[in-house]
Amino acid sequence: MSVVSCFCFGRTKIFNFIASTTSRSLFSSKTSIPTSSRTKSIVQLSVKIEHRTKFGIAEIDGCSYKGANKSVQRSEPPAHWEKILDGVRKMMISYSKDVPVDSMGSEEAAATIPPKERRFAILASTVLSSQTKGHVTQGATQRLQLNGLLTADAINKVDEEIIKKLIYPVGFYTRKASNLKRIAEICLMKYDGDIPNSVEELLLLPGVGPKIAYLVMILGWNNVQGICVDTHVHRICNRLGWVSRAGTKQKTSTPEETRKALQRWLPKEEWVPINPLLVHFGGTICTPLRPRCGECSISNLCPSAFVETSKPSSKSNKSGLKKRLQ
Q: Which of 8, 40, 251, 301 would be a feasible disulfide site paired with 238, CB 3.0-4.6 Å?
């Protein structure tokens, strides 16, 4: 997300996400590379970033999520939204694949990881996961951990070129290596090696946008402050007609606009699971180009159904399609 992807939810860009999980599952997915129990536990943070929940609200460290009752200005929900979400959930169950689970020793190892180190690993993995596939994020996180580079102190001391080599080929790895160095320095100076515990402070860190900030609050601090909206969620909510610019009927133009519009009506118990659900849906059925509307069970409730399914055969057709979509 694509700690993540989670995000496939990515992000899973990641992760996915069909039955609700508990804190134990955060460290339980099997990796293909043998590692120590401690290393394996940290590496699973990147898997969780792609599979942070399975279409449900999870718990971290045995504590229920906080912040779900934060007040927000409400607006009238769109028609049939509950039926649509239910339909998407049922479709995604059939599209999900079982993830091998190897919990032997990993749960115990997770308990030995200092909270400060765990939270920084979550932040670092989430930053790496941006615009990067889940397995690539996992590999990069694993290489950092195997080299003892998933703490603020260690990253602050190591040469930036080493970080670049270890996280390659994550998207924008050069920029992310620089951001990780700056993040580590800030966390050491201002938070004693820990990470910020508010969305506002997280957003001040280099490479951290709204989606990452809200996700880190959820996974790092068990605190739900907002919906994690990426391009999948942004696209699908607009296709469904669920969001619009304030005071207009126009589509939202950015994920952040979508987040604010979605939070005005979506019940707070759906704020966490909506991301992995729609990310999975956006990667399998409601794809960016030529969505598979013919296979979608809720197409009869979607105002955009079959509008983008045909592949233009000429420039004129492309132009005509663009006009129809505007």
A: 251
